[in-house]
Amino acid sequence: MRTERNLTRLDRVFARLDREPERPANIDVPRMSRHRVVLFAATLAFYLAIVWAVAITSWLVRFDWQVMFFRPYQQWPEIHAFLDYYVVLGQRGPTAVMVASWLGWRAWRQHTLRPLLTLGASLLLLNLTVGAAKLGMGRLGPHYAITIGSNEMGLGGDIFPSGHTANAVVTWGILAYLASTPRARRWLSALSAVTSLGVGLTTVYLGTHWLSDVLLGWAAGLLILLALPWVEPLIARAEALIFSLRDIWRARLRGTAPAPLPVPAPSPVGVPVMATRPSAVDGEVPARETVASRPGRSSVHLAPGPHTARSERTPVTPVGSRRPPHPDRAARAATAATARPLAGG
Fold first, then answer.
1. Span 329-335, mean pLDDT?
2. Which uninterrupted H or E stretch holds 50?
3. What is the per-residue burial (b if ≥16 Cβ within 10 Å, else e) of 84-100?
4. How many CB atoms lie within 10 A of CB 150?
5. Residues sharing a CB contact under 8 Å with residue 305, sequence separation 6 or more, in sequence order
6. What is the rounded (10 degree) CA torsion for 105, 107, 113, 119?
7. Is the per-residue pLDDT at 338 higher than 60?
8. Does residue 57 come out as left (phi exceeding 0), alpha (psi in the -120 to 50 range) or beta?
9. Residue 275, beta-bridge partner list
10. pLDDT at res. 104
């Protein structure tokens, strides 16, 4: 009779939380395929087109002013409180903590640092590229605009592109990038796209960004996600370096502990222990000497540390003479015996 237990949803959740015994061999590392290169080139062209359209004060800038004068936060004030909380999904600090917690569990469970290193590399690229673009173009936001109809560039602002939008694209898109199955990648891609789209439009609703800022933020975040396969070799090297440093550190910690003393093999009773000592003359073969076992000392004042048991030590009372045998002692005795009668005569 089979008595199989039907796993509940809670059982499956706890089973999922268990750590895998070793790193899975089927971790998919995206590569820079031709399709991805085409998407990267198209997104880069879109990025440059937005910058050019704003720089020459084209129709896009006029549309920015029209949206600003429309004042969406006054048209729909009932959703203002909700969107004030929703825009936090684009702030770098809270989103990085939430995503890093999830990826940290994945890194611990799969015995790999790649999820955390990929997140760190993407955030570093985000800070460098978006931060440099903000400071380089210096555009003022809608609340600080000076001249109606102008692009407000080069005035010391830091609003173009939208950092909230780019951060939402990268932070939530990294979950889709690191997804382990195609189905999870599709669902997470759709979820991150909707989330980043909502964050960008929320900043326009609140009046903190122009619409062109949001368009450029989407392009900036997507460029980082598409360029991550080029960074994968550096991530793999960093992971190998960190693991090697960890192994060295562990070995040093083990080396600081006192090593156990070697236990000598017990020699038979009455058999002297053979020892070798190098000769004082260079080039000579070391002479072999025989050293008899000596009686052990009292164990009352032993130094702290591991000591061998009495039964494992060399016998302390050897049988026979305590004088070590000499190789030419028999020859000397025979010579003396033959020479003694001659001396008496």
1. 48
2. helix 34-55
3. eebbebbebeebbeebb
4. 13
5. 258, 261
6. -60
7. no
8. left
9. 289
10. 92
